[in-house]
Amino acid sequence: MNISTGNKIGFLCFIVILSMWGYVVAHIIGIFDLRSIKDEKHHVYSLNIANELRQSSDDLTRMARTYVVTGNEIYKEYYFDIIAIRNGDSPRPKKYPPTYWYTSLTPERFALDKLDIQVPLKNLMRDMGFTESELLLLQQSQARSDNLMNIEKQAFALMKGSYNDGKGTFTPKGVPDNAFAIKLLFSPQYQQEKIAIMQPIQKFIAAVENRLIIEADEFQTKQKKYLWYVILLLVISTLMALIITFYVRNKIVLPIFSLVHDAQSIAEGDYQARSKVSVENEIGSLSKNLNKMANHIERDINKLKQMATTDELVGIANRRAFMKSLQLELERSHRYQVPLCLLMLDVDYFKVFNDTYGHSIGDDVLKLICKVSQLVLRENDLMGRIGGEEFAFILPATNIDFALIVAERIRAAVDDAFLIIDGKKIKVTVSMGATQLTNEDDVGLFLKRADMAMYKSKDNGRNQTHYF
Ligand SMILES: Nc1nc2c(ncn2[C@@H]2O[C@H](COP(=O)(O)OP(=O)(O)OP(=O)(O)O)[C@@H](O)[C@H]2O)c(=O)[nH]1
């Protein structure tokens, strides 16, 4: 996989991770919401259960009083049903809200709604997480409720003509006394006992409500705190991801792309191309080394180019380079119709010289000829070594008259120059030939005429200049 693809995949991963984070946050918020809905339900249910205790006490009074007033046995049944349900001796109706006994007074409905569970109300309360102190209040109410039930049972006994025998059992001893039963259940003492039951229940409900409010507040505070943690974490991780992305892009990906481009330019032969990547890491040192390598290549190529065009011994244009330049100048001269002259130089009796002084001194003489000749030339003139001891000169924009002057100057300069060997002056002379380009010339003809002019000088006794 290349870096470009990796970069795209990395960006995609970043988006996916960010989306996952978003999902997690949304999920956490959802959990909190669910939790708060659950807590809300729990709170409502707890209050319902607490209210049930108060309501059941009220319902008992209502059933007991209705019974003694109407004499209808059903109300006595309901009375004991309420006690049985509250104590867990009888299954709870499916829907048992505090107002149950107001709305479900038909036996059929009651039977249908029954659930197959028998749980005492106080157990339900314990399960709902009521505290010990709250449950103590209920116990207190329960104990007082029992007292009230004794009065109610006494009233029920009066309805049947039974009286408490003092041992807790009621035995029929006389005629039913409905009036006294009613009086008993509406007496100030009954009222007092009733109030005594309600007081701890009121306290209990207030305590539960208070506790639930505190719990809800605490939960909300905790919820906010965790939400902030999650948001903070999300922001930090997003920032980190952005910083990492920025770093990877600027310090790794873009420099690599630039390096690939620069290396490609060098590979395609642009040896002057250089990398401008300057990051402080391995890619930076790769860039430096690429530039070093390009420097070496450029230097070696230039050296090779120079070697290919320069004569090794005397350091001027070699035959190939000279011929190339001559062709170009010839074409230019033909195109623009400007004069062009060619000079030919050949060392006189050089074989004898070599034989006399040795090849190495012969080489020095060739160098000396180059040196003194070049002093005579103009900037646009070109001197090349076209044979062992044979040199040629291109004189652009020059007619034959001036070319002869230049040739003569070269000849004279060589004639004046000398080497000192073993304290003795030694020198050579040269024969010069000159010619001007004609419209019919090609390189071959042009060279041949210059050669012929030079041989004319040789034939005439050497160390002189002729033209053709
Ligand atoms: N030292 C040295 N001698 C060279 C070099 N190239 C050619 N020569 C010598 O130049 C000499 C040329 O000799 P010839 O062609 O016979 O001509 P010449 O002796 O100069 O006689 P003319 O040209 O007739 O005056 C030969 O002895 C070559 O060895 C070189 O690079 N260095």
Automatic annotation (TrEMBL):
Signal peptide: none annotated. Residues 250-302 form the HAMP domain. It catalyses: 2 GTP = 3',3'-c-di-GMP + 2 diphosphate. The chain crosses the membrane at residues 9-32, 226-248. Keywords: Membrane, Transmembrane, Transmembrane helix. SUPFAM superfamilies: HAMP domain-like, Nucleotide cyclase. GO terms for cellular component: membrane. One of its GO terms (biological process) is signal transduction. Its cofactor is Mg(2+). PROSITE patterns: GGDEF, HAMP. One of its GO terms (molecular function) is diguanylate cyclase activity. Residues 338-468 form the GGDEF domain. Its EC number is 2.7.7.65. InterPro entries: Diguanylate_Cyclase, GGDEF_dom, HAMP_dom, Nucleotide_cyclase, Rev_trsase/Diguanyl_cyclase. PANTHER family: DIGUANYLATE CYCLASE DGCM-RELATED, REGULATORY COMPONENTS OF SENSORY TRANSDUCTION SYSTEM. This is diguanylate cyclase. The lineage of its organism: Bacteria, Pseudomonadati, Pseudomonadota, Gammaproteobacteria, Alteromonadales.
